[in-house]
Amino acid sequence: MYDLPSDLPRLRTLRTWYAMWVDRIDEAIAAAEQRERERQQSERRRPPTPDWVVELSIGAGARSIEVHVGGCRAAGKRQRAVTREQTLAALADGMRACIHCRPDIELGVLG
Q: Of the candidates 89, 12, 23, 8, which has an alpha carbon nearest to the alpha carbon of residue 104?
C-alpha cells in the first residue's frame, strides 16, 4: 500500500520526519506572510507620489535645475514637490523639462 514500509519503527520514523518538514514549511509560510504584511503596511504608510517635482542642484544654495513628472526615474534624489502652477511657471521661465518624462508635453506647453 503506497510503497511504505510495513514495520512500525520505520513508519514512526517517517511520520516524525514528515512532521518535522511540515513544521518547517509552516514556519516558512508564517515568515513569508509576515513579510507580506510588513510590505503592505509600508505601502500604506508611503506618502503619495507628487504630480510634479523639480530636481535640485548640489550644494548649500541648491537651485532648481529640471522639471519632472512625479515618479520619473530620471529625476535625481535631490528633488522637491511642486504644484501644477509652479511647474508651469518654471517651464515658462525657461527651466529645462526632463527629456524622459516630458512634463512640458504632459502640461501642453510647447517650447
A: 89
Q: How far apart are CA 28 and CA 21, in angstroms?
A: 10
What letter does residue 94 receive in the DSSP assignment?
T
DSSP class of residue 107 equals: T
Radius of gyration, alpha carbons of the chain: 29
Q: Model-level pTM greater than 0.70?
A: no
Closest C-alpha among 94, 93, 92, 73 to residue 107: 92
Q: Which three cell numbers stand for residue 91?
A: 517651464
3-state secondary structure of 60: coil
* Chain segment 51-99, per-residue pLDDT in tens: 999 999 888 888 889 999 999 999 988 999 999 999 999 999 989 999 9
Q: Read off the pLDDT band of 110 (50, 70, 90).
A: low
Look at the block and give the residue holding cell 516630458. 102
